[in-house]
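Entry for the shared binder. Reason: the reviewer on the internal report wants the predicted structure included alongside the sequence.
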Amino acid sequence: MAALCMMFAARSSVAQTTPDDAAPGTIRGTVTDTSGSVVVAAIVTLQPTGSTAQRTTITDQAGSFHFSAVEPGTYALTITAGGFTDRKSTVAVVSGENPPLPPAVLQVAPAVSKVDVGLSQHELAVEQVHAEEKQRFLGVFPNFFVSYQPNARL
């Protein structure tokens, strides 16, 4: 009976030293560009590793962002802003601690442009008619040896 009481006492003391509810932490940071200027209105996304749930905030006029009440664990931090390449990093939050974040420096995105060159159907038809007119004898009489069908037979 005494052994049973000692086992119960040992379990209750272990439960008190390792609480089920870990204290949440805070994640803070500042977003800048390569020249050191702050990036305003950058979208910062915090997503737990292995989960689809996410939290999102936008940087303020000082380029700062803040996530409070972040449960301990590992998170993917993604920063996106117009004209810049996305920045992805991993942040580990320990119970009740505020992890120091290195400055988030965004690189200017390379200029990408796509140009499609071609003729409209109307312009293509006009060019085809001009080509057909050149196949006439003296520009007036039809050349009967010319066929406008792609698989013509003699």
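Summary line for the report: Residues 1-19 have pLDDT under 50 and may be disordered.
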